[in-house]
Amino acid sequence: MRFPWIGAAALLLFASCAGIAQTSGTCAAPFEAPLKSGTALTIDSRSAEIQIVGTDQEVVRVTCTLDHPDEANDVDIRLSVAGSYSKLKLKGGPSNNVHIRIEIPRATGIKIFAPAGAVGVDRVTGNKDIEIHAGAITVSHVDRSEYKSVDAAVVIGEVRALAFGIDKGGFFRKFTKETAEGKYLTLPAQNVSLS
Known about the structure:
The chain has one helix at residues 2-18, and strands at residues 21-26, 31-34, 40-45, 48-55, 59-66, 76-82, 85-91, 98-105, 109-122, 128-140, 147-161, 166-178, 184-186, 191-194. The chain is mainly beta. Strands 1, 2, 3, 4, 5, 6, 7, 8, 9, 10, 11, 12, 13 and 14 form a 14-stranded mixed sheet that branches. The termini are far apart. Mean pLDDT is 77; it is low at 1-16 and 187-195.
């Protein structure tokens, strides 16, 4: 029985020594916290319609729209920052009809996980790794010369990467492009639209 307490104490000591800062809130009010440009951000989200927009400000700002605003307090938002790495976690709330807008600095590398929904990424440079189990992904304002590697695949659905001249639908669709001079990676999965 003493071991779980020892593990928790060690984790707390590690977190305080590592300089991890945490900020939390809910969808009941806009959430805002500092986020430096160039940060690597992991977004671990509940199923939702998620729009991620790059801005010139060094903050992360989250706003939510729900069909039933009285349930906004049930959607938890937590940001953890440790040096140049950060994690934004969104969980809880109603089972559907949640729309989340996340504003981040333009030069942010992002990794996104969501069980289902629609993920849109607009005006964000940097590496992109987007994974959803069911739904659609759209990445807008892509300069193909900036990307070293692009991988996109669906089991059933459509891969649209207009910036790369790709538009495929059906079963088990995939495409890969390599550009030796590029500096970013984009690794979206499921239904993808890159324009």
